[in-house]
From TrEMBL:
This is Acyl-CoA dehydrogenase. Residues 163-263 form the Acyl-CoA oxidase/dehydrogenase middle domain. The keyword Oxidoreductase applies. Belongs to the acyl-CoA dehydrogenase family. Its cofactor is FAD. Pfam families: Acyl-CoA_dh_1 (PF00441), Acyl-CoA_dh_C (PF12806), Acyl-CoA_dh_M (PF02770), Acyl-CoA_dh_N (PF02771). Keywords: FAD, Flavoprotein, Oxidoreductase. Residues 42-157 form the Acyl-CoA dehydrogenase/oxidase N-terminal domain. Residues 476-603 form the Acetyl-CoA dehydrogenase-like C-terminal domain.
Length: 607
């Protein structure tokens, strides 16, 4: 097993190869140039890059956050060096098409690769998350000219990208944005408006910054139906994509966050006349695709970012777990209850510390498994043999996306809380990384849509679309896992299967009951509780899958001389989740089934 306290190479290997069998993907045309050997080489490369270039400045990123003097943003030099090393390795476009400079790596493997960088330094890694998401959106919806001008330089590390959605008065309510884009008469537009909370919105880490901006064209329909998407570069590019004159994009300031401090977070202003490209004010923008299709296009990046935030949450919880595990093994304090005198023992020998470590293990390893499973769904959606298989993968990915974003944001944050607790008083000091990991992770329940927003998407849209087809597909998938667990003949796995079957029945019944009256206000009133219960059922399924996989593997083989401890750890973590965590859903389903209207009947004057 890999002793790194950043991520676990051994767990990644187990998940990718033993459970998900990603080697099978190399039989498909898109991945035919790859093999287990190339996957391992890329994974080792990312481990080395994360260890050498990202992890060393994680603390400096936190202590010396970006500054803005009214004209330029300053960021510690180590960030630029790390991002250059990342770009030089070819990893920006690792999962993208050969024809635009990518490696066509399976998304599942790419997800595992990115877990190293988020765990090592989430502040620096977020520039990568934004840039790859921006590039993927333009590759999907941009014109060939836009791809040549903006995407190829992103893959080379010359351009970085952002997503400019939120506005001060609108927040997450995109129907209320007021940024406008006025046709300039030459095929371009002039963009005017203020945005807020834009990560990576200004810096000197790259030659250019490509803003993807949501705005309204005059005469557009109201609400989300009238939103269009524009490319607004910091510098206008020439025919070869090289930056020339400064566009009319400036900052009104930067935001100072409790975590993710290494990622500059900005309040950009478009078209205030700070700069005058072409001799007049207005930020020059270029329409992506057709007018009024901007929100649908932006969901390409938003959904990728939702899962990306889930991966960042997972990685922060995972590295905190590994660091608290190392601390618990090395910190002598106290004696066993039955001991009378004698030397102090490492705190890992105390049952309550083991409880906290086991909880962290179940959250972090479960979340990582979910993220990699979602990665395989992306691969299946793109390359499965039949249209029905591809459609099924897309259906599962859509219903799991709010879970993949929100569950790690809640429970890997809880893992970080436990990591601090295990460190005791030391955990609250800046001498140890775990307090920073907690602050970094606390942003993720808000990033890319709060728990409340994700829960309304899950209950208000995903489980009702096409008469509940997505939920039915997920429940069928879980039922197949239940059958495999029973087929092992192992009594404990059969018990897990029984518990999961009961939980899925409750989930199906509660979902139907919430919509029985067709009242959206009543159905969605407690959607956050529904999201949490749904997520725990999903993670119980994920743990059943891991336990069944561990059951079927030899404890010793030629490649792994002794995996017994690792596999027993998987089984024990699954047992913990089924005994300690899945039972949380019973009172949650009871509350939802009761039709409780406390929050609906509350008048604000009663506070």
């Amino acid at each position: 097993m890999n002793p790194s306290c950043i991520m676990s190479a051994g767990d990644i290997e187990f998940l990718l190869y033993d459970w998900l069998n990603v080697e099978r993907l190399t039989d498909r045309e898109r991945f035919a140039d790859h093999s287990r050997e190339t996957f391992d080489q890329v994974l080792r490369l990312c481990q080395d890059l994360a260890t050498t270039y990202f992890a060393p400045h994680n603390r400096d990123n936190d202590l010396h956050e970006p500054t803005f003097d009214g004209e330029r943003v300053s960021i510690i030099p180590a960030v630029g060096k790390a991002l250059k090393a990342f770009a030089d390795s070819g990893m920006v476009g690792a999962a993208m098409d050969y024809e635009i400079g990518g490696m066509q790596l399976p998304h599942s493997v790419y997800t595992a690769c990115m877990s190293w960088f988020h765990a090592a330094n989430v502040g620096t890694a977020s520039y990568v998350l934004l840039t790859t998401g921006n590039a993927n959106l333009l590759a999907a919806h941009g014109s060939p000219e836009q791809i040549d001008t903006y995407v190829r330089p992103m893959l080379e590390g010359r351009n970085f990208g952002t997503m400019a959605l939120s506005e001060p008065q609108a927040g997450s309510s995109l129907a209320d944005i007021t940024t406008r884009a006025v046709p300039a008469g030459d095929g371009s537009y002039r963009v005017f408006g203020h945005k807020m909370w834009i990560s990576g919105g200004d810096h000197e880490l790259s030659e250019n910054i490509v803003h993807l901006v949501l705005a309204r064209i005059p005469g557009a329909p109201e609400g989300t139906r009238g939103i269009s998407l524009f490319i607004v570069p910091k510098f206008l590019p020439d025919a070869d994509g090289n930056p020339t004159v400064r566009n009319d994009v400036a900052l009104s300031g930067i935001n100072h966050k409790m975590g993710w401090r290494g990622t500059v977070n900005t309040a950009p202003v478009f078209g205030d006349g700070n700069f005058t490209p072409g001799g007049e004010p207005g930020a020059v923008g270029y329409l992506v695709g057709e007018p009024n299709q901007g929100l649908a296009q932006m969901f390409t990046m938003m959904n990728e970012a939702r899962i990306g935030v889930g991966l960042a949450s997972t990685a922060l919880g995972y590295t905190g777990y590994l660091k608290s595990l190392e601390y618990a093994r090395s910190r002598p304090q106290g004696r066993p209850v039955a001991a009378r005198g004698g030397a102090q023992v490492p705190i890992i020998e105390h049952p309550d510390v083991r409880r906290m470590l086991l909880a962290q293990k179940s959250y972090a390893e479960g979340a990582l498994a979910l993220q990699l499973y979602c990665g395989t769904l992306v691969d299946e959606q793109r390359t499965a043999a039949t249209e029905s298989e591809r459609a099924r993968a897309g259906t599962l990915l859509r219903i799991l996306t709010p879970i993949a974003k929100s569950w790690p944001s809640q429970w890997c944050l809880a893992a970080n809380d436990l990591a601090i607790q295990i460190h005791g008083g030391a955990g609250y000091t800046r001498d140890y990384d775990v307090e920073q990991h907690y602050r970094d992770n606390r942003l993720n329940p808000i990033h890319e849509g709060t728990h409340g927003i994700q829960s309304m998407d899950l209950l208000g849209r995903q489980v009702t679309l096409d008469s509940g087809a997505a939920l039915a597909a997920l429940l069928d998938t879980m039922a197949a896992s239940i059958g495999r667990a029973r087929g092992t003949g192992d009594p404990e796995l059969a018990g897990f299967a029984d518990a999961l079957e009961a939980a899925t029945a409750r989930l199906a019944g509660t979902t139907a009951g919430l919509w029985r009256d067709g009242n959206p206000e009543a159905a969605l009133a407690n959607s956050a509780v529904y999201l949490e219960a749904f997520g725990h059922v999903v993670l119980a399924w994920i743990w059943l899958e891991q336990a069944v996989t561990a059951h079927g593997l030899p404890a010793r083989d030629a490649q792994h001389r002794d995996r017994e401890a690792f596999l027993r750890g998987k089984r024990l973590a699954a047992r913990y989740f089924f005994r300690w965590e899945l039972p949380r859903t019973t009172p949650q389903f009871d509350l939802l089934d009761s039709g409780d209207r406390t929050t609906l009947e509350l008048d604000e004057s009663w506070f």
